[in-house]
Backbone:
C-alpha cells in the first residue's frame, strides 16, 4: 500500500496559488498496471483555491486508514468529493495543470519548452537549457515581453516564458510550434539551429518526435488544452516509487555544475522543510 500523497500536497498547495492562478488542476495517478489522468477537460474542473479552502483537518482525518469514498461521501461537501476523486487515497500521484487553461485555441500567456532527454545524461540537458535561455535572450527579433522561469521536472528541464500579456494561438502556430522540416518562421527551429552550432558535442532537435542520441526542445506543452507538471510535483516512473520531485529554479542555478546532484537529493521531507525558501523562486 502506498502512502497518501495528499498530506504532502496539502502543504504545497498554498505556495502554488500565484503560479496556477485560474488554471485547471490535473492529476496523473499510477496503479500497478495502468496510469490515468483526471483533468478539467473531461471532469468537473478543479482549481487551487478549492484545494486550499476544502482540505482541512477533518478531510485529512477521513483519508487516514482504509476509508473509501463510498464510506465517507456523506461527510464531505461536493468540492471535497471532487478532490477525493482527483487524489485517489494511497496511490502515487503527479500534480499537473493546464498551462494555458483547458480546451484548444485559446490565447496564451505562457510558452513552455520541454528540454526532453532519453538516456542522455541530465547534465547535458542542463547545458541545453542554459543555451536555450541565452539564445532566446539574445534574439532581438523575438520582441515579446516575458520573464524566464526554469524548472527541474524531476528528470529534465522545462523553460517557461511568462508573457506580459496574452497572445493569440495563431502566434504559437506560426512562430513557436516546431517539428522536423517545419516553417522557417519558427523561432524554435532557429534557436535549435544556433544551439547546435554552438554546443557541437550535444545533438539537439526541435519538436516532440524523439531521435536516439538527441535532446529535444519541444514547445508542444504550450497551447491551451495541454498539461504540464507543477512545481513540487512528484515524478513517478513506477506505481510504487517516487523517482524525483519537480523543483523551481533560478537562472543562476543552472550554471551550478553540481545542480543535478543537489536536485536529486530532495525528497518530500526536504522539500517541505525548505518550502518557504524554494517557493520564492516561483514567479
Residues:
Amino acid at each position: 500500500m502506498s502512502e497518501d500523497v495528499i498530506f504532502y500536497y496539502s502543504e504545497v498547495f498554498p505556495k502554488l496559488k500565484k503560479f496556477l492562478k485560474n488554471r485547471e488542476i490535473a492529476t496523473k495517478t499510477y496503479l500497478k498496471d495502468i496510469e490515468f489522468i483526471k483533468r478539467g477537460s473531461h471532469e468537473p474542473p478543479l482549481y487551487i483555491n478549492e484545494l486550499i479552502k476544502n482540505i482541512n483537518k477533518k478531510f485529512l482525518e477521513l483519508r487516514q486508514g482504509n476509508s473509501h469514498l463510498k464510506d465517507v461521501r456523506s461527510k464531505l461537501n461536493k468540492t471535497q468529493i471532487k478532490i477525493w476523486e482527483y487524489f485517489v487515497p494511497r496511490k502515487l500521484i503527479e500534480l499537473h495543470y493546464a498551462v494555458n487553461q483547458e480546451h484548444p485555441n485559446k490565447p496564451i500567456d505562457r510558452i513552455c519548452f520541454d528540454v526532453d532527454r532519453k538516456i542522455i545524461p541530465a547534465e547535458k540537458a542542463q547545458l541545453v537549457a542554459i543555451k536555450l535561455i541565452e539564445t532566446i535572450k539574445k534574439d532581438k527579433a523575438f520582441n515579446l515581453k516575458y520573464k524566464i522561469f526554469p524548472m527541474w521536472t524531476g528528470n529534465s528541464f522545462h523553460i517557461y516564458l511568462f508573457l506580459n500579456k496574452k497572445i493569440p494561438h495563431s502566434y504559437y502556430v506560426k512562430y513557436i510550434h516546431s517539428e522536423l522540416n517545419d516553417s522557417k518562421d519558427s523561432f524554435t527551429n532557429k534557436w535549435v539551429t544556433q544551439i547546435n552550432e554552438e554546443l557541437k558535442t550535444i545533438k539537439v532537435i526541435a519538436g516532440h518526435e524523439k531521435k536516439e542520441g538527441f535532446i529535444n526542445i519541444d514547445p508542444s506543452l504550450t497551447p491551451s488544452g495541454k498539461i504540464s507538471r507543477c512545481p513540487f510535483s512528484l515524478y513517478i516512473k513506477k506505481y510504487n516509487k517516487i523517482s524525483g520531485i519537480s523543483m523551481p529554479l533560478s537562472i543562476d542555478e543552472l550554471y551550478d555544475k553540481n545542480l543535478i546532484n543537489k536536485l536529486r537529493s530532495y525528497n518530500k521531507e526536504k522539500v517541505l522543510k525548505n518550502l518557504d525558501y524554494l517557493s520564492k523562486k516561483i514567479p
Observations:
- The chain has a mean pLDDT of 95.
- The CA atoms of residues 88 and 278 lie 27 Å apart.
